[in-house]
Amino acid sequence: MFRKILLASLVAASCGTMPLIASAQQRAIVITQPPPPPRDEPMPGARRGQEWAPGYWAWRHGEHVWVRGHWMHERRGQHWVADRWIERDGHWMMQPGHWERGMRDRDMARGMGDRDRDGVPNRYDSHPNNPNRN
After folding, report:
1. Is pLDDT above 50 for 24?
2. Which of 7, 64, 66, 103 has the smallest C-beta neighbourhood within 10 Å, fewest atoms?
3. Reduced to 3 states, what is the DSSP secondary structure of residue 134?
4. Which has the closest alpha carbon to 53: 25, 31, 75, 29?
5. Can you tell me the distance from the alpha carbon of 116 to that of 134, in angstroms, rounded to the nearest whole number?
6. Higher pLDDT among residues 129 and 56, named by residue
7. Mind listing the pLDDT tens digit for each residue in 25-62?
8. Cβ atoms of 119 and 79 closer than 8 Å
9. Alpha helix locations (H) across the chain?
10. Do residues 116 and 133 touch, judged by C-beta distance below 8 A?
């Protein structure tokens, strides 16, 4: 009986530390020194199936370091939101780049509508008028 209780306690204790590990990996970077102005980095010509992630200032070892832009494989129905610094009450917080559902404004301007609002442009959507699709 004692062994069962001990084993159950160990399992419960190990599961309780998992959220702490996950949250430690997602720490926010908050500093008081504003980033330098973005560098003028020309975007190379468009590549089929690729999306450009522009360069940004990262905070490493107590200083701002420029990270050059790069190409990434595009994700259907999503667009890349670039890394950026946000100022709040005299503190600067790094908001990492991420993929977001939906289309870019330039795609909407080119008539690539999304009738069923599923985040996939009509011309790429196999069922663009499906009202039951979420």
Report:
1. no
2. 7
3. coil
4. 75
5. 8
6. 56
7. 456 788 999 999 989 988 888 888 899 999 999 999 99
8. no
9. 2-25, 105-109
10. yes
**For residue 30, how many other CB atoms are within 10 A of its CB?**
12
Contact 50, 72 (CB under 8 A): yes
Task: Provide the pLDDT for residue 8.
Answer: 63
pLDDT of residue 110: 52
- Bridge partners of 70, per DSSP, are 53
Measured CA to CA, the distance from residue 49 to residue 75 in angstroms comes to 8
- Measure the CA–CA gap between 69 and 73, rounded to whole angstroms: 14
Contact (Cβ atoms closer than 8 angstroms) between residue 37 and residue 24: no
- The count of other CB atoms within 10 Å of the CB of residue 90 is 7
Q: Please give the Cα distance from 87 to 94 (Å, whole number).
A: 9
* Token couple for 3: 């062994």
Tokens for 51, please give them: 């999306």
pLDDT in tens, 54-93: 999 999 999 999 999 999 999 988 889 999 999 999 999 9
Cβ atoms 55, 39 nearer than 8 A: yes
Q: Judge if pTM exceeds 0.70.
A: no
